[in-house]
Amino acid sequence: MSRILFFLLLAALAWIWFFKRPSVRDGSGRRERAPQQKPVERIVQCAHCGLRLPEGEALADGEQRHFCSIEHRNAHIGRD
Length: 80
Hints:
Layout: H1 2-19, E1 43-45, E2 52-54, E3 59-60, E4 66-67, H2 70-79
InterPro entries: PP0621-like
Organism: Methyloversatilis universalis (strain ATCC BAA-1314 / DSM 25237 / JCM 13912 / CCUG 52030 / FAM5)
Protein name: Preprotein translocase subunit YajC
C-alpha cells in the first residue's frame, strides 16, 4: 500500500512539474523571455490629404514631407 501511495505522489509531482510551471520554454529547453514591446512610432501627416499614419508606413521625400501613397506623393509633386 505504501508503494502505491509513493508512486501516486511521484506521478502527481511529475504532473505539477511538467504542466503547471508558470514559465514557458522554447524547443531548446531554455526559458523564453517576456515579449519586448515595440518602440512607439512617430505619427506623421500626409502632405497631400492630411491623413495621419505611423512613420514606418509613410512614404517620405527628402524635404521632411510624408505621404500615405505613391499617388498622393506624385499628385503633390505635380502641384508644387
